[in-house]
Amino acid sequence: xxxxxxxxxxxxxxxxxxxxxxxxxxxxxxxxxxxxxxxxxxxxxxxxxxxxxxxxxxxxxxxxxxxxxxxxxxxxxxxxxxxxxxxxxxxxxxxxxxxxxxxxxxxxxxxxxxxxxxxxxxxxxxxxxxxxxxxxxxxxxxxxxxxxxxxxxxxxxxxxxxxxxxxxxxxxxxxxxxxxxxxxxxxxxxxxxxxxxxxxxxxxxxxxxxxxxxxxxxxxxxxxxxxxxxxxxxxxxxxxxxxxxxxxxxxxxxxxxxxxxxxxxxxxxxxxxxxxxxxxxxxxxxxxxxxxxxxxxxxxxxxxxxx
Length: 307
Fold this sequence. Notes:
Layout: H1 2-8, H2 15-18, H3 24-38, E1 51-56, H4 68-74, E2 78-82, E3 89-95, H5 109-125, E4 130-136, E5 140-147, H6 152-161, H7 172-180, E6 187-192, H8 198-210, E7 214-221, H9 223-227, E8 234-237, E9 244-247, H10 249-273, E10 277-282, H11 288-304
Parallel strand pairs: 3-4, 3-6, 6-7, 7-10
Antiparallel strand pairs: 1-2, 4-5, 8-9
């Protein structure tokens, strides 16, 4: 998106070049540092809790929040009040189903999604926010509850390094499993190609929103899935079911693009309709877009209040 590129500044590293870096944590560091250099002046000060005001100390208050400098000046005890009681608790949910292994070029959707998740984790960990991770196919494969302690980031990167077995996509069951293990409200960021019926997405995301969680949906697609510029008739195989279908692109391209666009629009409406933020990216777009869009979503919520 041109507006985003202008806002961020100069061009960023090409995803294909970024994927040549074997270490996920190093990839994430490269993206975050490039992002921060691109933002010359940023109105965003992180997602962590912000100080709000003072109130006088009463017995039973946590003494950790006493302001000793103010006590030295006034000889009275005051407690710092905060907008929220804890830092952000973020759950990164990454789709590792078979369809995520598709690539018309050098970058698979899985590599792009896990690098995006690693980038967000690196970014939030630097702010001492608690970050967790769940990878899923037709069920949750790996789950790390949100933590801000030392070693959490390395553990998270190790999980993302593992290649998924690649089964069919099931959004409802995995998100229910993660939500059930999450008694406190937090931020869920879903990375998936969402090649599922719109109703399933609406139900899954709607359940999270009904439980009080904030949700950001990042749809990851291959550029060819949007454009469908194939020119030769051939057998096409469903990545998840294995079903094969003979397709002549000359006759199918127009209908495919129409259906794909309609599905994409319906997905956006379904997510926004239940109060989630939605962004659609392709694997040839800079990873900095993920951070920029995430900050914009948080800023909008900050100005307009929680939905």
